[in-house]
Structures are given as C-alpha cells and as structure tokens.
Amino acid sequence: MANESILIVDDEQDLCTILTSFLEKKGFNCHACHNAAEAVEYSKSNHIDLALIDLRLPDEDGITLMKKIKIFHPDIAILIITGYSDVKTAVSAIRLGASDYVSKPLYTDEIYQSVEQALEKKKQPSASEKKDKNKNSPSSKKSKSKKTPKKTNINKDYVLGSSEYSKTVFDHIKLVAPTDLSVIISGETGTGKEVAARLIHQNSKRKDQNFVAIDCGALPEDLAGSELFGHIKGAFTGALNDKMGSFEVADGGTLFLDEIGNLSYENQVKLLRAIQEGEIKRLGSNDNINIDVRIIVATNEDLSKLISDENFREDLYHRLNEFTITMAPIRERKEDIPEFADFFLQQANEALNKEVKGISNKAMKALNRYEWHGNLREMKNVIKRAVLLCNDEEIHEKHLPQMVVEYIPDPPEENFMNNLPLDLKAAAMEAEKSVIIQALRKVGYNKSKAADLLNIDRKTLYNKLKNFNLATD
Ligand SMILES: Nc1ncnc2c1ncn2[C@@H]1O[C@H](COP(=O)(O)OP(=O)(O)OP(=O)(O)O)[C@@H](O)[C@H]1O
C-alpha cells in the first residue's frame, strides 16, 4: 500500500476534495492548498513526495511554484494540471523539470496512473547512484565489458515513421551510430530527440556501457557543474561527500545533453575542455580524471542565433557539430501520424490493460488535421487518454479532446493586413474569420464560450462557422 505524501495545489476546492479523497483511498497522505503562497509555506516544513500543481493559480503560475517547491524538495515528482489549451506551456513545464502533465477534465484513473508512474520514476536510482553502487560492490573490479547491458527491446520502444523524412532521419542515425562523432539533434519539443539519441547509442560500439541523459534545461545553474563534473567533499556548502558527475558515470558510453543552449557560459568552457582533452576535474579538486565519452546534444533553439547573441560559444558549437540530425515537427510529416497513433494505441492498451482495436476514420482525420505543437509527446498523451475513456472497439471523435476534433489551422499571421483583399466586404469577412478563429482557440474550442467572448449568440456563431467552411459537424 502506498504511503507517500502528495501535495495538491488547485484553487478549485471541489477538485481538491475529490482528488484528496480518491488518492487517500489509494493509501496516499494528501494535503491540499488553494494558492501558491500557501503551498510554499507548507512545503518549507513538510515532507512531500509528489506535488500535483494547477498551471493557473490565483497568485502565481504553476511553473514558478514548481521551481520554488523544488528548492526545498529537489527530488520531488511534479505533475502539472492543465486546461487543454495550455498544453504548450505544460510541455515546457516538463522541460523545466515536471514529471508529466494531466489535462482537465481530470479522470481519477488517469491521475492515479500518472501519480504511480511519476513516483516509480523518482524511485529509480539515478545513473550515478547505480554506478556508485557498482563501484562499492564486491564485483566492482570486473572489467566494464562484463557489465550486463540493460536489455532494450528496440521495436517495442519506438517506431520509425513511414514518411520519406523519417526514413532519411533513421538512415542518418544508422550511418552516424557506429562512429564516435559528436551529434547535434535539433527539433521542437517532443519530436523524439532523446529517442534518436538512445538509438544512436544502442547502435554504437558503446551500447553495453551507460547512456546518461542530462536535461540542462532542468538543472539549476549552480548545480549544473557538480551534476556534470562531480565534486569532492567540502567543495561547497552542502557537498557532504564526494560525488561522481555525469561524465564519469557515462565513461565508456554516451552522454546526452538535452537543451544544451541552457548551459551557463562557465560550464560551456568546461564542457569544451572535457571534449577536447578527454579529461575533467571534479569541483573542488585539482586532479584530472580521464574520460572517454561520446557526446550527443539536443536543442530546440536556434544555436546560431544563441551564438550571435553571445549566449553560446562558437568554438563549442563547432566541436559538437560533427554531425547534425533535425527532427521535423509532426505537422510537417503527417504521413507518420497513422503509424505513431497506432503505436501509441498499442502502448496505451498495454499500460491500461485495455483492448481497443483501432481508431475510427473520423477520429483519424481529426488526428491528421491537428497541428501537434507538443509533437509526439502530446499525441501519446491524447491517445492514452482516449484509450482510457474508450469502451468501444475503436477510438471515436468523442474520445478525443475538443481542441483536437475541432482544430482549425493557424490563421496566417504575417502581413495579414497587407494580404487582405481590396474588396471591402471580402476584407471584412477575412478579418471576421480570423477573429472567430482566435476566439475559438482562446477558449479551447468551446463554442458557447467563444460566442460569449465574441459577443454574439451561439446560433450566429454556428452560422458563421458554416459560411466560413469552418464547421466540423
Ligand atoms: N520514434 C518514436 N517511436 C515511438 N515513440 C516515440 C518516438 N519518438 C518519440 N517518441 C515518444 O514521444 C515522446 C517524446 O519523445 P522525446 O522525449 O524523445 O522527445 P524530445 O524531442 O527529446 O522532447 P524534449 O525536447 O521535450 O526533451 C516520448 O514519450 C517518446 O517515447
């Protein structure tokens, strides 16, 4: 039976009551706060294993609160609660250290599963703990090659994607994997950069050694140096023991540095030295430690822009840029959607112990039309929720979020005014259409709310949507 402590932070009192009572029945100790200030006070003096935080709180946003709570509880698991139209922000919360997000309306089974998964992930020892343990165990003198590799069933973990684009990407992965070249993988969030990095490692001669993934975006700046290079006892206040850094843990294997653009200038210098000279120094020590690590980095920023703004060192960029892979957003490789959707459906069936057989044509059309700004991560979550809600043979539109079913592609923003037709009536219609689309997006495609916002009645909105060919039903 679970005994972990959960902090719930949401201004909706009813929701807190429901979640508290449900999670306490599952054996958790729960405490609810209704705003950020209360939550910070509570977290200063109470033990918390996991926090469920609403993205929108009356006094502060959920991400800022997450960062504050992490100061008192660095290892805490965080689940962000979001409205569907906030998914983009929720996805960036993951980059900043949240374990996952759950979107409203909330379903208790889904919450329970996400809570269990986040706590499970938190319990797994970090790579450095594993390596430290190996070091101290009686078998630590065994040569590295005798270490049991982590078993991964590649075909179960990923799909290739059937678009020409994806095929080329995987050809490039196969090409670069056996070499020792450093690789930059760029692409929007959720496009599969980490999956690609793991594939490179698994297909390299280093595959039996560690693959260590570090998210530079989630690392507080003052901890980043110690996380990467380790420290010796007394190096700084709080350094109570010697600690191995990721470079040492990854020795012989691959170090994956996600969100490399977030690394401080000082750590960029140390990283360059480590790559060029094959040695590092733990913080507080003068001893050089030889390391043999392959570096793969990922970024969703334009590194050349960071260089011209003097936020990223050009010499480091050139050292890293021995091979580049770009993961295109899903909306630019829509042929991949059915294959990924089916893969995530099977994954969700397995995780939720369900037997949903497929996705109806209409639902698949909606998946194809939607633009997936959170890319594969967002699609995986949408399909998992649809499987959870589905008691039919197939996923139908009713199982998908309204935002996905009723999605209308982005209106052209650039030079909108300049591109309006010179016929006044036609121009007015274009402008009206654009405002309607913006209103619908703002309220997550809820037509009643959009009509309110536009100051018209629901029926007028329906008629306008029909006239503009925007109606989906
Ligand atoms: N080829 C693939 N096959 C199956 N699942 C995939 C594939 N690529 C990505 N995914 C899934 O999509 C989600 C996002 O992938 P991943 O973490 O690799 O993206 P990312 O680009 O590194 O994201 P971020 O920039 O936010 O760190 C993960 O749950 C991953 O398992």
From TrEMBL:
<dbReference type="InterPro" id="IPR058031">
    <property type="entry name" value="AAA_lid_NorR"/>
</dbReference>
<dbReference type="Pfam" id="PF25601">
    <property type="entry name" value="AAA_lid_14"/>
</dbReference>
<keyword id="KW-0805">Transcription regulation</keyword>
<feature type="compositionally biased region" description="Basic residues">
    <location>
        <begin position="141"/>
        <end position="150"/>
    </location>
</feature>
<feature type="compositionally biased region" description="Basic and acidic residues">
    <location>
        <begin position="118"/>
        <end position="135"/>
    </location>
</feature>
<feature type="modified residue" description="4-aspartylphosphate">
    <location>
        <position position="54"/>
    </location>
</feature>
<feature type="domain" description="Sigma-54 factor interaction">
    <location>
        <begin position="159"/>
        <end position="388"/>
    </location>
</feature>
<dbReference type="InterPro" id="IPR011006">
    <property type="entry name" value="CheY-like_superfamily"/>
</dbReference>
<keyword id="KW-0804">Transcription</keyword>
<dbReference type="InterPro" id="IPR003593">
    <property type="entry name" value="AAA+_ATPase"/>
</dbReference>
<dbReference type="InterPro" id="IPR002197">
    <property type="entry name" value="HTH_Fis"/>
</dbReference>
<dbReference type="Pfam" id="PF02954">
    <property type="entry name" value="HTH_8"/>
</dbReference>
<keyword id="KW-0547">Nucleotide-binding</keyword>
<keyword id="KW-0597">Phosphoprotein</keyword>
<feature type="domain" description="Response regulatory">
    <location>
        <begin position="5"/>
        <end position="119"/>
    </location>
</feature>
<feature type="region of interest" description="Disordered">
    <location>
        <begin position="118"/>
        <end position="153"/>
    </location>
</feature>
<dbReference type="Pfam" id="PF00072">
    <property type="entry name" value="Response_reg"/>
</dbReference>
<keyword id="KW-0067">ATP-binding</keyword>
<dbReference type="InterPro" id="IPR002078">
    <property type="entry name" value="Sigma_54_int"/>
</dbReference>
<dbReference type="InterPro" id="IPR027417">
    <property type="entry name" value="P-loop_NTPase"/>
</dbReference>
<dbReference type="Pfam" id="PF00158">
    <property type="entry name" value="Sigma54_activat"/>
</dbReference>
<dbReference type="InterPro" id="IPR009057">
    <property type="entry name" value="Homeodomain-like_sf"/>
</dbReference>
<protein>
    <submittedName>
        <fullName>Sigma-54 dependent transcriptional regulator</fullName>
    </submittedName>
</protein>
<dbReference type="InterPro" id="IPR001789">
    <property type="entry name" value="Sig_transdc_resp-reg_receiver"/>
</dbReference>
<dbReference type="InterPro" id="IPR025943">
    <property type="entry name" value="Sigma_54_int_dom_ATP-bd_2"/>
</dbReference>
